Amino acid sequence: MKNLTHTFKNGIRLVYLENPSPVSHCGLMVGAGSRNEEKGKEGLAHFIEHVLFKGTKKRKAYQVLNRLEIVGGELNAYTTKEETCVHASFMPEHFERAVELISDIVFHSEFPEKEIEKEKEVVLDEINSYMDNPMEQIYDDFECLIFKGKPLGNPILGTHQSVKAFTRKDIVSFIKQNYINQNIVFSYTGDLPFEKVKLTVENYFAKEGRAGKIGKLSSLHSIKSRKYVEQKKTIQSHYIAGSVAYSVHSNKRFPLFLMNNILGGPGMNSKLNMNIREKYGLTYHIESAYVPFIDCGLFNIYLASEKKFLSKCLGLVEKEFNKMKTVRIGSSMLSRYKYQLKGQIAIAQENKPGVMLNNAKSLLNYNKPLNILEIFRKIDEVTADQILDVSNEILDNTRISSLLYDPVS
Q: Is 9 left (phi over 0), alpha (psi -120 to 50) or beta?
């Protein structure tokens, strides 16, 4: 399948992936998210994602929402720590409709005051829904603990106080500072020819946006280990622990991806799942995760259990940590683990909207589209000694912070 790129004269980049399918997917990704917010403006990037849909110079809010839905397409958006994305899925004959709509809402939204005030209530309700779900909230609270005082620790949704204070001026200012053409990628996957996609995107984007310099991110400096217990009205104990890890540019990220997959990745045969859930039945949900950012990363493990089982769970987790740090994986088993990870990645390629979005992110981070064969090669190059090294660094007790939601009656 063809995987091509193009840079337009105004700096906006296009990444294209040929995919024979009755459905096409496209999206515009901006390399700016919650960590680009100023102090007191927590949640602004995510709030902008909401109000982009609330009307443009030529469309009311209902016309924005109806434009693709009426032809069976879907329009959506999301915000992360480092990106904001508006994306769509549709039948190929509606590609131009999707491109024009995305261009309109990203570059010509009006942000009516009445809609801003109304949408604040929607986002506040979204915050409340997260606060009702300890499994979701603990991840946000843990990131605030790890990156305390840094924008990377900001909750993506913001706080009740910050959201209530947003103004139209805040929205316009954030967009002016961060929606820079050199920081914008348009991604497409489908069976339309590259030249048609390029000409259509050029028609609607070549005269849009703004030039400028991408702002510098705040330095993280050294981050100290922290332990925290919070009393919560929950039925289960919820526990998360982890440490600062490697960035998207680090050569150590592939050994860590593999280590994470072995320890607590999505496979039911992960060490944590097999030796805590399956062997003892002490928890329903236990996992580990590694998320790389531009200048650092975050590794963590999460579990939930009855309060009376928590101590035993944590002892078993510590046992698995020690094994990862001391037991060298044999060549045969390491080969199997590599096949497992590569298989998971290959299956993920069946999620075409996800591939389209990952292509955009790859272009932002590495200035080239996703290359699965290169990723497989990097995985194959990982050695058992490298896994031991990253395990001893990332799972070092002096580096690990933790957060416990302790149930109260």
A: alpha
Which of 82, 45, 34, 1 lies closest to 364, judged by CA?
A: 82
User: What length does the chain have?
Assistant: 409
- Over residues 49-87, the pLDDT tens digits come to 999 999 999 999 999 999 999 999 999 999 999 999 999
% of the chain with per-residue pLDDT over 70: 97
Tell me phi and psi for residue 11, to 5 degrees.
105, -15
Q: Enumerate the β-bridge partners of residue 17.
A: 3, 189
β-strands 227-232, 401-407: how paired?
parallel
Number of neighbouring beta carbons within 10 Å of residue 224: 9
**Alpha-carbon distances, residue 391 vs 252, 260, 262, 310 (angstroms):** 11, 9, 11, 23
Q: Is the pLDDT of residue 214 over 80?
A: no
Q: Using the 8-state DSSP alphabet, how is residue 406 labeled?
A: E
Domains and CATH numbers, the chain: 3-205 (3.30.830.10), 227-407 (3.30.830.10)
Full DSSP string of 280-330: H---SEEEEEEEE-SS-EEEEEEEEE-GGGHHHHHHHHHHHHHHHHHPPPP
- Positive or negative: CA dihedral 365, 295, 176, 109: positive
What is the rounded CA–CA span in Å between residue 99 and residue 121?
Answer: 30
Q: Is residue 26 pLDDT above 60, yes or no?
A: yes
pLDDT tens, position by position, 172-199: 999 999 999 999 999 999 999 999 999 9
Distances (CA, A) of 409 to 38, 125, 180, 231, 307: 38, 25, 50, 10, 12
Please compute, for residue 340, the number of CA atoms within 13 A of its CA located in the half-sphere on the CB side: 19
Give CA–CA dist 151/153, Å, rounded.
5
Q: Is 179 exposed, middle or buried, given 0-12, 13-18 or 19+ CB atoms closer than 10 A?
A: buried
Range 84-101 average pLDDT: 98
